[in-house]
Amino acid sequence: MVTESLLEKSRQPVAIVIGLDINGLGVARSLSRRRVPVLALHDRSDSPYRLTRHARFRRVESLSGRSLVKQIQQLSDRARERPVLFPTEERTVETLVRHHKDLASCCRYKLPDGQLLERLTSKSGFDALAKKHGFLVPGTWTVDRSTYEDVSAVEFPCIVKPSVKNDAYARHCRKAYFVHDREELARVFEEVFPHVDEVVVQEWVPGGDEEIRFCLFYCSRPGHMDAAFVGRKLYSWPPGTGGTASCMPELDGDVIEAVRSETERFVAAIGLVGMGSMEFKRHAVNGRFYMIEPTIGRTDYQEEVAALNGVNLPWAMYADLVKGEIPEQKRTRRVRIWRDRHMPRWSAERQGRQCHVSPGSGVDSVWRWSDPLPGLYEGYRRLTKRLGRIRIGNVAGQA
């Protein structure tokens, strides 16, 4: 098989990217820039990203649990050199931490210990840890099924999120809810509590999506941030509460220093290791940066924006684990705007001009002339789906 050939014949360790969505595709492309052989694992065989020329693809039963561990062990047994693992989802990170004794001898990766991971992947746990070490965070209230009717302390407007993500919540609810008043909050609770046991209600920090900054980083040893990239969101979808739709490097030196230094201080305070990121939002009135939430032990959704602008964090981790050294990286002079596949090009370009970025700097998360098949296949599927809806609508109209 092609996969076995890659593992057995490659003269350097293979990078195994676990999860081939937008995040995983960006990681594969980033590693391929440095001529790293990449094997991508995914639990669906119909993903358009499996067609990328930057990775070999292998379908697995699951991206978490014992079956994933067994699959990694089998792949590692065939490899000439111990592979390097790049998780892209929280459930995968949890599996790697839980089964560290089974995997440490056959592959390479860096993750925080299980207790710290559990605290940081819970929004209430992160809030408590950040406050303990004196970091500026929005006011946060933890609410569960038994106490949700008593929320007199909550201030409005606010944001409601699950304390810990789960599949049932993701299928039935929004990523987050913007709530204006107590009556609306009660309706949101009625909607979410059948699918989650606990939520956090977080104070809304005034300002639009463009006030959100993030620091992507890699730590080679606990508490030491070796490489980092500070970026800013231009747009989220849905606006105000959604994920990154477009982003770019931060250009203001003072902002870069403020965001990076606070992230570095957080990393040092709690002893983080491995890949991660911290999201901040600048208060539109007082100008202070509030920590919103971390991503721990894995690459972030918009991870590739850093590599597109010269700071290749997956390569930094790979080089550290394989060669024991971290390559020096500098941001490129030309600014590249990363945009999600659903973000219109003109909108990303318009936002870039507002930040004094030259036209033509937008880079689509999927479509690339140098790697066209994922974008072409995704476009084909979208077109056939739309034509199917039109056909059904015409039939219904004639009836």
Q: How would you describe this structure to a colleague?
A:
38% of the residues lie in helices and 23% in strands. It is α/β, with parallel strands linked by helices and 399 residues long. Strand 14 (337-339), helix 13 and strand 15 form a beta-alpha-beta unit.
Question: How is the topology of this model organized?
Answer:
Layout: H1 2-9, E1 15-18, H2 22-32, E2 38-42, E3 56-59, H3 65-78, E4 84-87, H4 90-98, H5 100-103, H6 114-121, H7 123-132, E5 140-144, E6 158-162, H8 167-172, E7 177-179, H9 182-192, E8 198-203, E9 212-221, E10 224-237, E11 243-249, H10 253-270, E12 274-282, E13 289-296, H11 304-308, H12 313-323, E14 337-339, H13 345-354, E15 362-364, H14 373-398
Parallel strand pairs: 1-2, 1-4, 2-3, 14-15
Antiparallel strand pairs: 5-8, 6-7, 6-8, 9-10, 9-12, 10-11, 11-14, 12-13
Helix pairs in contact: 3-4, 4-6, 6-7
Q: What distinguishing features does this structure have?
A:
D-amino Acid Aminotransferase, Chain A, domain 1; four-stranded parallel sheet; 3 domains; Dna Ligase, domain 1; 399 residues; alpha/beta; Rossmann fold
